[in-house]
Amino acid sequence: MFRKTPEAFSTDPQALALSKDAVAKGFDAGCTDQEKLFLYMPHMHSEDLADQDAVVRLIEAMGNHDGKNSAVEFAKEHRDIVAKFGRFPHRNALLGRTNTPEEDEFLKSHGGFGQ
């Protein structure tokens, strides 16, 4: 919904708040692994490094299951981008933000994530 438009990110703050509240209340304890990954996704979409660190910890804490290693690596990739740039450069054009020279260089070799 709203792919490749600024509206694609318009409800991210609400989704993140709901996700954080659910995790704080322990609702994820009763979830399947796939449900947990869905619940934690708003953390991965956040441009706040603390949220990125949290999603890496949450996924690592899930233990061993099919797909966990790739989910952890995907979360770490997101975190590393936010750690380096303070944001996701692939969102800049849609959100009317100007790229830094470093972000321009990064985007030449990185296709970005879903927009």
Automatic annotation (TrEMBL):
Entry superkingdom: Eukaryota
Region entry Disordered, spans: 94-115
InterPro entries for this protein: DUF924 (IPR010323), TPR-like_helical_dom_sf (IPR011990)
Pfam families reported for this sequence: DUF924 (PF06041)
Protein name: DUF924-domain-containing protein
Lineage start: Eukaryota, Fungi, Dikarya, Basidiomycota, Agaricomycotina
